[in-house]
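hey so u asked for the seq, here:
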Amino acid sequence: MRHSTNPWVILVLVCLAQFMVVLDATVVNVALPSIQSDLHMSEANLQWVINAYTLVFGGFLLLGGRAGDLAGRKRLFLGGLVVFTIASLLDGLSTSQGMLIGSRALQGLGAAFISPAALAIVSTTFKDGAERAKALGVWAAIAVGGSAVGLILGGALTQALSWPWIFFINVPVGVATFLLSLRLVPESKEDAAHRSFDVAGAVTATGGLMALVYAIVQAEQKGWGTARTIGTFVAAALLLGGFLAIERRAVAPLVRLSVFRVRSLATANVVMFLVASGLFAMFFFNSLYIQRVLGYGPLKAGLAFLPFTAGIMASAGFASNFAPRIGVRLVSSAGMVVASLGLLLLIRIPVGGSYVADVLPSILLTSIGMGCVFVPLTLVATTGLEDADQGLASGLFNTSQQVGGALGLAILSTIAAGRSAPVRGDAAAGLVHGFHYAFAGSSLFVLAGLVALVAMLRARHVEGIEAEAATATAV
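ran it, structure tokens below
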């Protein structure tokens, strides 16, 4: 497909939208105390400022990805931008906890349309192996680095202005991105798509994913063995089981189940699920340690994660250049080893520690490792597929990241809470003791991703990526 617009301009626009989506998953964290005070929210309701976004985002990703293939990726991308921008404005204008939580849910819906459509636009715009690797290197840096920037920006805006500004800042960015994308981003969709839409599949898939994410985020609060948690997991299993049965018989399925026979796509999703389980928890527990134990304020805590963004950008650039040439399996495997070692460094953090000696080395190692993981995995997940399946692949990949991250955080939060009893009457020592177990678990999740990669992916499954890169280099 030829584009009248420079493809790198298209990349900038879709990455800008993705940056807002990723940033809004973490920007709220450091503003929670201010939000709680202003809106008089209870601890139980406060968590839903984050969970409402996560729940709807994770639940609608699969539907959003396939809808882009069928209705048009640009159309869905622009629609998602409108929803996200309006929801951001409503977030900042919220005068009650109900209004804020509802607006955050609406924001998650917009994000679920933006994210898979944006990645599919990148994958269909950049055909060449080497060029696609570079583009996905930028994408990966935005996708992971945006989380750290969210903590910095959230702290700065909350401290300098007030918490509504963490949402208001999205409005001019969203409007500008919409207007430029309307003119510059080309439309693409599955030309041979059936005009019928798999309504039953859409309902069961979205309901099942939302029930699964809800069960996960509530498990740490309500307990894994409670009737409510078990019942929600059972409901999720029934809905997702019904979804699989429907897809086997549907004339125009929401998800062609045969796509999972593509070993590269299946492997990338399993590995992403496991790696995200460790990475999300790392951000969460590091933020708690820096603020509660080291005593950093919101802005200073956010700035503490700036080296993570720098490390991701540097390693993502390296991976985008070298992974297709020396092997995506080798680079991603090395990245997971480095990241797991970085996480293991955190099991030695003391109560009376310091940021430079005890936290910074881990942040640098983990960020360098993760940059070398995300670029190859994104390449593996989106290469070797027809353009008609790029939205579906993007939706699956994003769903694996969000559900894996939510599950890992819930599991490790439960473990940390169970190990956080005061040590000789010292509450801080007990808290840090629980963190040690959480960081060890994060490292194990990443190592599990390495095992899955080695066990599932062979050279023949990714030979096309290296072949395209070699051809591009020769030319």
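The chain has 19 helices and no strands. The radius of gyration is 21 Å.
lmk if thats what u needed
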